[in-house]
């Protein structure tokens, strides 16, 4: 089995995670990097031992490099659409970080390109590889919880060391990020719901900016915040499962707390990134007698994001891999949340084939 030669675009914080995941998986070699920041190019080039002629300030040159088999894109949101477009036009397989784009208007034109040339693409909905969420999906699909009537999903982060003390950074800059916690964390919640239950039928929502201004560490000045740092929405899935969602960047005390609780006729299941290798399963152990058990996730339920990317590159995309259409559908739901919140109404989403 050959190794794949990877071009990595974006050398900021999340690049460290991707470089680690790539190294852990094996069968990959990062042979080129791109970033608009010359310093990052030099620093990461050395770290990855990459020749100077494979360090590109312009990501389009990296994507066009014939010696690169696939692209990994880990950039701020404002270049997501341009990178996916360039990969589609070049026929270059890619793994691109979420959210798919800043706003749906950037996603819409990519669909026609993809339909004309369905390049192998994967979107970085990494929580599909949390073992507890994979096992939850297995149990739902096997009917072990009975008919699912409702569920709740939350994704809470407590940024900053003190209460509401997070400094201003690019993730609060509307021009760069599009939306705040909705696109950053809400996209993961939406993908988890789609991973577990299929498509959304309708939703209503509220997006809030709880902390109206934050201090820019570069200038020391307070900056008005234009993006959401809290979002809640409720929706109905294609199988009539009723879902409640919330996400906050101000949930002080929460680390990286993404979790789901599923309520079915035959039992309740809780799965969380706080305990990723186990689930909490409440069911009847005898008529009228409930038992709450902590269950280890079986090994067959485990997979990795870069293991699935390998399968995609080998031409054998496994079930459940978050592909181009998962990114596009995710952006449709993000757009529905924005419209439902702004127009204060329930928004229906077009029925989609599963
Ligand atoms: C935000 O803090 C963030 O880095 C997200 O952007 C990632 O998608 C998530 O996995 C961890 O938190």
UniProtKB/TrEMBL annotation:
Keyword Oxidoreductase annotated: yes
InterPro entries per record: Gfo/Idh/MocA-like_OxRdtase_N (IPR000683), Gfo/Idh/MocA_oxidrdct_glycsds (IPR050463), GFO_IDH_MocA-like_dom (IPR055170), NAD(P)-bd_dom_sf (IPR036291)
Domain Gfo/Idh/MocA-like oxidoreductase N-terminal: 5-124
Example GO molecular function: oxidoreductase activity
Start and end residues of each GFO/IDH/MocA-like oxidoreductase domain: 133-269
Keywords from the named record: Oxidoreductase
Annotated transmembrane regions: none
Record flagged with keyword Oxidoreductase: yes
Protein name: Gfo/Idh/MocA family oxidoreductase
């Amino acid at each position: 089995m050959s190794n794949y030669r990877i071009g990595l675009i974006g050398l900021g914080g999340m690049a460290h995670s991707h470089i680690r995941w790539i190294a852990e998986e094996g069968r990959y070699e990062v042979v080129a990097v791109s970033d608009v920041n010359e310093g990052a190019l030099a620093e990461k080039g050395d770290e990855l031992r990459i020749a100077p002629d494979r360090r590109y300030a312009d990501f389009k040159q990296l994507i066009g490099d014939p010696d690169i088999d696939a692209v990994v894109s880990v950039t701020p949101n404002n270049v997501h659409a341009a990178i996916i477009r360039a990969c589609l036009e070049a026929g270059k397989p890619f793994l691109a970080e979420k959210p798919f784009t800043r706003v749906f208007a950037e996603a819409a034109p990519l669909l026609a390109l993809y339909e004309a040339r369905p390049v192998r693409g994967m979107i970085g909905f990494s929580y599909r590889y949390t073992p507890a969420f994979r096992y939850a999906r297995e149990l739902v699909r096997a009917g072990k919880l009975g008919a699912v009537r409702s569920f709740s999903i939350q994704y809470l982060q407590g940024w900053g060391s003190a209460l509401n003390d997070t400094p201003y950074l690019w993730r609060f800059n509307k021009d760069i990020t599009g939306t705040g916690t909705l696109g950053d964390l809400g996209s993961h919640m939406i993908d988890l719901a789609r991973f577990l239950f299929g498509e959304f039928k309708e939703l209503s929502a509220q997006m809030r900016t709880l902390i109206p201004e934050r201090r820019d560490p570069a200038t020391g000045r307070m900056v008005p915040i234009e993006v959401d740092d809290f979002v809640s929405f409720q929706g109905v899935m294609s199988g009539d499962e009723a879902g409640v969602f919330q996400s906050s960047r101000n949930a002080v005390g929460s680390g990286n707390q993404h979790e789901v609780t599923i309520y079915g006729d035959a039992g309740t299941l809780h799965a969380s990134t706080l305990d990723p290798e186990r689930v909490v399963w409440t069911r009847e152990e005898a008529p009228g007698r409930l038992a709450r058990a902590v269950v280890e996730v079986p090994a067959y339920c485990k997979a990795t994001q870069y293991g699935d990317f390998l399968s995609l590159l080998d031409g054998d995309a496994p079930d459940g891999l978050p592909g181009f259409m998962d990114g596009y559908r995710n952006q449709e739901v993000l757009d529905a949340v924005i419209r439902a919140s702004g127009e204060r109404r329930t928004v229906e989403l077009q029925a989609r084939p599963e």
